[in-house]
Design a protein that fits this description.
The complex is a heterodimer. By secondary structure, chain A is an alpha/beta fold. Chain A contains 17 helices and 20 strands. In chain A, a hairpin with a 2-residue loop joins strand 1 (8-17) and strand 2 (20-30). In chain A, helix 4 crosses helix 5 (145-158) and helix 14 (406-418) runs parallel beside helix 15 (436-451). Chain B is built from 13 helices and two strands; from the N terminus they run ααααβαβαααααααα. Chain B has helices at residues 2-32, 40-58, 61-85, 90-109, 135-139, 144-162, 164-174, 176-181, 186-212, 224-234, 239-259, 263-267, 271-297; strands at residues 123-125, 141-143. The chains are: A alpha/beta, B mainly alpha. At the A-B interface, helix 2 and helix 3 of A face helix 7 and helix 8 of B.
């Protein structure tokens, strides 16, 4: 067992995409029995590097060694055969198939006719051994995101993976689930497996990793032992400058209620109840965070408020007017701004120019909208002004918005939504997938809007974000608000338990406000 | 009297539903892999024409059947190349294939229209079983091709739902990226199943011209390829339901012929047109009902149906 050959060695890996140098002569080594964190901002090349290791991408140059032997992977199948398994950020699970079917998918050694009972027993056995409980007969679409992740890991263990790559694995877990998950990682490490842990959550990396490798702009910056490192040190390695972790949210007295939901009910796309008698209130000058594990009705909540999803019960009031069941246009006129979770599919029209995207709400009214025609010159002028004011990095106002980076696209959407001085802002996962710099920027914009009196409903799975920005936190579970916490009394433990569905009557949480 | 008529109708339904059955199951395979092939009508026509021609030329209907299968496979290969390799739009490519098949079969098959006696596949009443009252004539007194259809149904069902390659097939149509990361060659599988779909469509055409309506006339499939495409949706991509649908439509297609003897229709000949319209009207009705049910039971289309698969599509 005293084997000192590295589990894998990537030497001088270079990978180009059209117009982007994603990995620039990166060297990355993983030892047996270690948890190695791969840290970096978005676009730093972490996922690309790991997709090379897992055989999905071919490196343009560089060498790859597994257990001391030079290898060339032509497909993920080759990598799996060599003991490299990757759990992708977007799960690679077929929703309409069962857990067992997903686990054996692509395996050659299971016989022509599937012996379901045998496979299920094997899946159960692996699950018990590593603390990954999951029902092998359940369909993927019936599982929570945390359970799906377990299936992904079981899938790789079933294939005998010795090197396990996890791409942002904790992004979808509650704090409690994360704890159990870390336990599993320790278990695998004890068996001599190598775990590569891609993340940009510094706290987690420091608590679980043995060593940390930092990438920035496709280049290898540093590989350091985790022990002794601090958050600010890591952050400056990642970003290349000092980073502020705190956002000033001056105490202001909230004003009148701007958004009131009473017993709202709505169905999801499968026509099952997604919102069950959900009530909440957001007042002028406050940010209310909705915390919860993905798939507990967040999306339906945002869509219901914006008039995009029919409501089957209850009422919605915006600035004192009852707008229950009104279409989106009425909601917009009532002063609701929406920053949707899906920036490119719902937040913008990818093939329209930046200027046109910025005018998606103002095109109907003067000065841009005329009786029959649009005043394109005014539209452009306004766009230029917004690009300046919101610091959107774009070659020009005529560039199609699909060419913008995630952070700049989000700034564009915020510029459009916030510049109309909305009464109410619904922001769903506003910083999802953004790097530290862009995240800072977006959060400041939201806090500014709050300080100017907007009522903001912040929907997010990222507890750090919810805690950093919210004046109050409502926890959503299976379409209901199961708990209210004020900023002062908020602690991760309690909120985490509530997110898992436990009704915690900790403090006098009768703040039905 | 009534019973005899019903037996007659059901037997005829199974007979004339057989080409539809082959085409439908073929299209189920193609669509399960994520490729929509609207060229079924064209592939059936080419299969029918080629099979009839080869049978006439060689005097061996089995060689004709084989030729029909091969031609269907080749046409589907064209579609696979267009849509899987070149990532062309599947709808456009499929439509083009149908027009190609219609035109080509009409031109190449022109001399065959005169041929009225090409050898056809043999009828084969199963000894003993065909003597059973009612059930016998409905199920066991048929052309041999009909029994091949009977066999195909459970085989296709078992393959898709109970075998390892079937599991891979379903995964490729639902979530090709997942299959790819597990070492399944998405491109190769899509080629296989598109071609298999074409071979079955060709077989369906050959069944038509060599057994069910043993002759060749231009456009003799009369839209059956389109009905097959619709049946796939009605079937929820399940071969068993696909078979039920195929035989049901076979029966509906037969109605106008079997009703002609009834005096009512003799007195009102225009009703014949109405009866001829029925299969198509039924297609629409059944699709509406079938789709709604599919939504309810969560047996929708394969999620990646119609979407080309590209591995390295994102920059960084």
């Amino acid at each position: 067992m005293s084997d000192s050959t590295p589990a894998f060695e990537m030497r001088n890996i270079t990978k180009r995409f059209p117009g982007v140098l994603a990995n620039d002569r990166v060297t990355f080594v993983g030892e047996k029995g270690e948890i190695h964190a791969l840290l970096g901002e978005n676009g730093a090349g972490k996922s690309t590097l790991m997709n090379v290791l897992s055989g999905l991408y071919h490196a343009d140059s560089g060498e790859l060694f597994i257990d001391g032997r030079r290898v060339r992977f032509n497909s993920p199948g080759d990598a799996i055969a060599a003991g490299v398994g990757m759990v992708h950020q977007h799960f690679m699970l077929v929703p309409v198939q069962t857990v067992a079917e997903n686990v054996i998918l692509g395996q050659q050694d299971v016989g022509f006719v599937l012996d379901t009972a045998k496979i299920e027993a094997e899946v159960r056995r692996i699950g018990e051994r590593y603390g990954l409980p999951v029902d092998p007969r359940a369909y993927i679409w019936q599982l929570s995101v945390g359970e799906q992740q377990r299936v992904e890991i079981i899938k790789m263990l079933y294939r005998g993976a010795q090197i396990l790559i996890l791409d942002e694995p904790t992004a979808v877990l509650t704090p409690q689930e994360t704890e159990g998950f870390f336990h599993t990682l320790e278990e695998m490490k004890a068996e001599g497996k190598t775990i590569v842990f891609i993340s940009h959550k510094l706290d987690e990396v420091l608590s679980i990793a043995d060593r940390i490798t930092v990438l920035r702009q496709g280049k290898h910056i540093a590989t350091v032992p985790a022990a002794g490192m601090t958050k600010p040190e890591l952050a400056s390695l990642m970003v290349g400058r000092e980073v502020l972790f705190h956002i000033e949210t001056p105490a202001i007295e909230p004003g009148e209620p701007r958004l009131i939901l009473r017993d709202v009910e709505a169905l999801d796309n499968k026509r099952l109840p997604a919102l069950r008698k959900l009530s909440l209130t957001v007042r002028s000058g406050e940010i209310v965070g909705v915390a919860g594990v993905a798939g507990n009705g967040q999306r339906e909540l945002a869509e219901a408020i914006c008039g995009m999803r029919p409501i089957t019960g209850g009422s919605i009031e915006v600035t004192g007017d009852n707008v229950t069941g009104a279409p989106p246009i009425i909601m917009i006129e009532a002063g609701i701004a929406y920053v949707p979770a899906d920036r490119s599919a719902m937040g913008s029209a990818p093939n329209l120019s930046v200027a046109e995207n910025l005018a998606l709400k103002s095109y109907r009214i003067p000065p841009i909208g005329g009786r029959w025609f649009m005043n394109r010159r005014t539209m452009r002028e306004q766009a230029e002004a917004l690009i300046q004011a919101y610091d959107i990095a774009t070659p020009s106002a005529d560039t199609p918005s699909r060419k913008l980076s995630g952070g700049n696209l989000q700034k564009l959407i915020l510029a459009r939504e916030l510049s109309s001085r909305p009464q109410v802002i619904i922001a769903a996962y506003p910083t999802r997938g953004l790097d530290i710099g862009a995240t800072e920027n977006v959060r400041n914009l939201l806090v500014d809007a709050r300080n100017q009196g907007a009522a903001i409903l912040l929907i997010s799975e990222d507890l750090d974000e919810v805690f950093a920005l919210s004046d109050r936190i409502d926890v959503i579970y299976e379409g209901e608000i199961v708990g209210h916490v004020s900023r002062e009394e908020a602690d991760r433990e309690t909120v985490g338990l509530m997110m898992a569905g436990e009704r915690v009557t900790k403090s006098a949480s009768n703040a039905e406000s | 009297m009534e019973v005899a008529m019903l037996v007659n109708l059901l037997a005829a339904g199974i007979r004339s539903g057989t080409p539809l059955l082959f085409a439908t199951i073929g299209e189920i395979f193609a669509e399960r892999s994520g490729v929509l092939n609207l060229g079924v009508e064209g592939m059936m026509l080419m299969g029918a024409m080629t099979a009839y021609g080869v049978s006439h030329a060689t005097g061996n209907p089995w060689l004709g059947l084989l030729a029909g299968i091969i031609v269907g496979g080749f046409m589907a290969l064209l579609h696979a190349f267009m849509t899987v390799t070149l990532r062309a739009d599947q709808v456009v490519s499929g439509l083009a294939l149908t027009f190609l098949g219609m035109g080509l079969s009409a031109v190449l098959g022109a001399p065959l229209v005169e041929v009225r006696n090409a050898p056809k596949l043999p009828a084969f009443p199963i000894p003993g079983l065909s003597q059973i009252p009612v059930v016998g004539p409905i199920l066991f007194d048929h052309n041999i091709i009909v029994y091949i259809g009977f066999l195909l149904i459970p085989v296709a069902w078992f393959y898709i739902y109970r075998t390892r390659p079937g599991l891979n097939l379903r995964a490729v149509g639902e979530y090709p990226a997942a299959a790819d990361t597990l070492g399944i060659n998405v491109t190769r599988l899509r080629y296989y199943y598109v071609i298999l779909g074409g071979m079955l469509a060709g077989l369906g055409g050959a069944a038509l011209s060599l057994a069910i309506t043993p002759l060749w006339i231009e456009g003799m499939t009369a839209g059956q390829g389109w009905i097959a495409v619709g049946l796939v949706i009605f079937a929820g991509w399940d071969p068993l339901r696909g078979a039920m649908g195929a035989y049901l439509f076979g029966a509906i297609r037969r109605l106008p012929l079997d009703m002609q003897n009834i005096s009512f229709f003799l007195q009102h000949p225009t009703y014949g047109y109405f009866m001829n319209m029925l299969p198509y009207l039924f297609t629409i009705i059944v699709l509406v009902i079938g789709s709604r049910e599919a939504l309810r039971r969560r047996v929708g289309a394969p999620a990646a149906l119609g979407v080309p698969y590209v591995r390295e599509e994102r920059g960084a």
